[in-house]
Design brief:
6 strands; two-stranded antiparallel ribbon; single chain; alpha/beta
């Protein structure tokens, strides 16, 4: 499949397994340059090995996205390494179960503009 993403730059969090890793593999097959994040450096290196075997260019960024400073650091590192950022896939795993609440602020406002909050156990 050609999604027209060849040469784009993507940052993916929670990318060492599950949905994040599956998305990284799909983007790798499209020729996207990847910056992948996970809390676990060993899992991240295994993911990088598999992605580079597919021909992807991969930057690993081990960090915990629950730290409020981390997201900006991940973006800065990606832009520093690749000169830009085109795609952002924000994904993170447990251990917490969360309830996501979204509020529509104005009629006709698309869902991706709605503010949200998460209540975690």
């Amino acid at each position: 499949m050609d999604l027209g993403l060849k040469g784009k730059i993507a940052l993916l969090t929670g990318a060492s397994s599950g949905l994040g890793f599956a998305t990284a593999k799909t983007l790798a097959a499209e020729g996207v340059r990847l910056a992948i994040n996970s809390r676990n450096p060993e899992h991240l290196e295994r993911a990088k090995a598999e992605l580079t075997a597919l021909g992807a260019e991969v930057l690993t960024l081990p960090a915990d996205v629950s730290d409020p400073a981390t997201p900006q650091k991940l973006i800065d590192a990606t832009v520093s390494a690749y000169g830009g950022l085109d795609l952002l896939f924000t994904n993170s795993g447990g251990p917490h179960q969360c309830v996501l609440r979204m509020w529509m602020t104005q009629p006709g406002n698309p869902p991706w503009n709605w503010p949200f909050s998460a209540t975690c156990a």
